[in-house]
Design a protein that fits this description.
- The protein contains 4 helices and 4 strands; from the N terminus they run H-H-E-E-H-E-E-H.
- The protein is α+β, with helices and mostly antiparallel strands.
- It has a 4-stranded mixed sheet with strand order 1-2-3-4, covered by helices on one side.
- The radius of gyration is 19 Å and the shape is globular.
- The N and C termini lie far apart (52 Å).
- 22% of the residues are buried.
């Protein structure tokens, strides 16, 4: 009887812990590809570098770096205004993460980020959603 209870407890614990991980079938590469796809078609995007990393129990982070086809700051800001909510919308339903978002000029000399839009939060998806009113 004691062995049966032990097996049941271990099975229950395994089931509960399995629910704590990322969405089944979704890898770090899948998340990065999804965020990249959300912004790749936007005007003035020359290239997108996106990464995503799950650090077991520590959290998730990532980068979405949009390389613009221009060095004009106003055009880059317009791209950021379109890209920022597109990335956050693409992340709907995903585990909490802290993705860095930047638009980098064509010459690599400058960049804009959500702070240039007045954002001053923690860099988490939840904080981004609150700022964007989503």
């Amino acid at each position: 009887m004691g062995k049966i209870i032990t097996v049941l407890i271990v099975g229950l614990l395994a089931t509960v812990l399995a629910g704590c991980g990322p969405t089944p079938g979704t890898s770090d590469t899948d998340y990065a590809a999804k965020y990249k796809a959300a912004v790749q078609p936007l005007a003035h995007v020359a290239r997108v570098d996106a990464s995503y990393k799950s650090s077991g129990g520590i959290g998730r982070s990532g980068d979405v770096f949009l390389h613009a086809d221009t060095a004009d700051r106003e055009t880059m800001m317009g791209l950021l205004r379109d890209a920022f909510p597109a990335i956050v919308d693409a992340a709907a339903g995903d585990p909490e993460a802290n993705p860095a978002i930047q638009v980098i000029s064509a010459d690599g000399a400058s960049a804009v980020s959500p702070t240039d839009l007045g954002y001053s939060g923690t860099g988490s998806l939840t904080s981004y959603r609150q700022f964007l009113g989503k």
